Amino acid sequence: MKFTAQQIADILEGDVVGDSNIKVSKLSKIEEGVEESLTFLANPKYTPHIYTTKASVTIVNKSFEPENDINTTLIKVDNAYKAFSKLLEYYNQVKLNKSGIEEPSHISTSAKYGDNLYLGAFSYLGDNVTIGDNVKIFPNTYIGDNVTIGDNTVIFAGSKIYSDCSIGKYCVINSGAIIGADGFGFSPDETGEYKKVPQIGNVILEDFVDVGAATTIDRATLGSTIIRKGVKLDNQIQIAHNVEIGKNTVIAAQTGIAGSTKIGENCQIGGQVGIVGHIVIGNNVKIQAQSGIGRNVKDNEILQGSPALAYSDFNKSYVHFKNLPKIVKSLNDLEKNNGNS
């Protein structure tokens, strides 16, 4: 799909300097610009590239005035970075603007869906599924019985949403995510053999939740595993049964959260963090990557390490740890000197 510089300027409410009819069909970095590409200049350290870029159109701040000849058409806006971000969002919407039901696909006779549904080929909608308006479901997706999906949600290819789960409005579920799989519930009998405990709860995703690729959110044993409004989950995260994550919390890749733990609002959790079950983590908590959390955490704490310490204590301890060989040598020398005296 091609756009003229003027069409882009109209979207961004900017002014064209140069050829308003020149067309672009792709995006690029300014230093890697090629013909028919669109780029932007926001960081002053990249200014030299605007004189050599082969990009056909460049978005710049209104304050920018070239000091040498340029070959690219300019679109001048109030804030080049924000304008380019807006354009990326618009481009993504255009790219994902699919509608209609592809074949083959299975839709239960009791399923209901709103206007402008896109259902990709080889997808499955179970009994009593309810889907809102403008929902996009990409190919090879499974939607189990009694699932509800809110307006404007996008579910990418190969995702699986098990029965009875609830997905809010404006959610994004990336490829390979599994929502509502059984929690890890087993109990040993008198012989020591582990027997499965039925998991009969569900998963609730509130509005504006993003779920990364290959992330798994287990259904509750009873009740619900709940992901509150605005939560952002990276790829390959494991969230166990009956976990609750507060609104606007963000969690990086490969983090594992054990069952029945409650995480507060506006938390930031780094990659590969391990969190034990049945604890409470407060609001506004920050946990550094690869930390192990084995206790309750109060509001506003910053933690690092395994087991995790207060961030400042960890840094102080690490300084001593690095110097441990010297400290041991000093102690040994002191003992020798005392022994010789």
UniProtKB/TrEMBL annotation:
| MF annotations from Gene Ontology | UDP-3-O-[(3R)-3-hydroxyacyl]-glucosamine N-acyltransferase activity
Q: Where is the UDP-3-O-[3-hydroxymyristoyl] glucosamine N-acyltransferase non-repeat region domain?
A: 21-89
Q: Where is the active site?
A: 241 (proton acceptor)
Query: SUPFAM superfamilies attached here?
Result: Trimeric LpxA-like enzymes
Q: Among its keywords, does the record have Lipid metabolism?
A: yes
Pfam families in UniProt: Hexapep, LpxD
Tell me which InterPro entries the record gives.
Hexapep, LpxD, Trimer_LpxA-like_sf, UDP_GlcNAc_AcTrfase_non-rep
Listed under catalytic activity are:
a UDP-3-O-[(3R)-3-hydroxyacyl]-alpha-D-glucosamine + a (3R)-hydroxyacyl-[ACP] = a UDP-2-N,3-O-bis[(3R)-3-hydroxyacyl]-alpha-D-glucosamine + holo-[ACP] + H(+)
EC number(s) per UniProt? Answer: 2.3.1.191
Identify the CDD domains for this entry.
Answer: LbH_LpxD (cd03352)
Its pathway, per UniProt, is: Bacterial outer membrane biogenesis; LPS lipid A biosynthesis
UniProt KW keywords: Acyltransferase, Lipid A biosynthesis, Lipid biosynthesis, Lipid metabolism, Repeat, Transferase
State the oligomer form and interacting partners.
Answer: Homotrimer.
Query: Which family is it part of?
Result: Belongs to the transferase hexapeptide repeat family. LpxD subfamily.
Record function comment: Catalyzes the N-acylation of UDP-3-O-acylglucosamine using 3-hydroxyacyl-ACP as the acyl donor. Is involved in the biosynthesis of lipid A, a phosphorylated glycolipid that anchors the lipopolysaccharide to the outer membrane of the cell.
Protein name, per record:
UDP-3-O-acylglucosamine N-acyltransferase
- Source organism of this protein record: Gaetbulibacter aestuarii
